[in-house]
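Morning - S-adenosylmethionine inputs below, output right after.
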Amino acid sequence: MNLFEPDLASVVNLMPQKDEIGQLLGTTAYWTASVRAMESKRNDRLISDQWAEILAGDVGAEWIKQRTADAVLPIVLRTRYFDDFLQRIAYQSGIRQVVLMAAGLDTRAFRLSWPESTRIFELDQPEVMQHKNQILSTDTAKPNCERHVIAVDLTGHWLDRLTDAGLDLRQPSAWLLEGFLFYLPAELITRLLAEIALSASGASWLGFDVINSFMLTSTYTRSWIEMQAKAGAPWIGTLDDPIGFLNQYG
Ligand SMILES: C[S@@+](CC[C@H](N)C(=O)[O-])C[C@H]1O[C@@H](n2cnc3c(N)ncnc32)[C@H](O)[C@@H]1O
């Protein structure tokens, strides 16, 4: 072996395996729960999540201790923004099916009110859903809707699992991908969004947050991008023209 060539076998051994990547990405759900816990304690809070602190646990508490309020403000704002988005759809457009992709430790099914007969489908990795269900059932939390939990890898086949759980694709639905897409490579982002756009019936709604490629290199966002990478949950996926992309799917 040429001494100056990297030993590929050892490089591959050092790379996180699929399970480990999943676990590291799952950790990020504890982080966002810790932000909701922090915001819920403020007098003029934008959201109130009584379960966030216990769901975030020690992992979340340790993470938030090292962040400034400014650094996590975008997470607070997007939470409230998407709360309003989903509530407007539920109460104004008569949609009764809500799909939360990569729901993490989100408690919207419990902390928001929903019109009668609303069904909420929460999808995420098995370990994350198991933790959430365990805490919520110990706390005897009651959802304000019909709640369906689907433990699934969203990079694989998930649509059948959703329809098996009762999502009716002939009826309009609301979809949310919050704090998720930047963990996926660009081709998976477009595949996932296209799959939703092509499967959901007309008059459905889609909400998501994405980053553009500038965010990966800008000096303004460097410390955040480095923090994510160091934690083993790097932001990698960008979409520079989300409006143009969505227009292709009507
Ligand atoms: C930053 S958290 C966001 C969770 C929630 N949407 C929120 O805003 O609090 C990212 C979530 O993506 C989930 N996730 C990442 N890759 C996934 C995959 N391949 N399949 C299912 N869930 C995944 C993680 O488990 C984690 O819960």
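Note: Residues 1-15 have pLDDT under 50 and may be disordered.

O.
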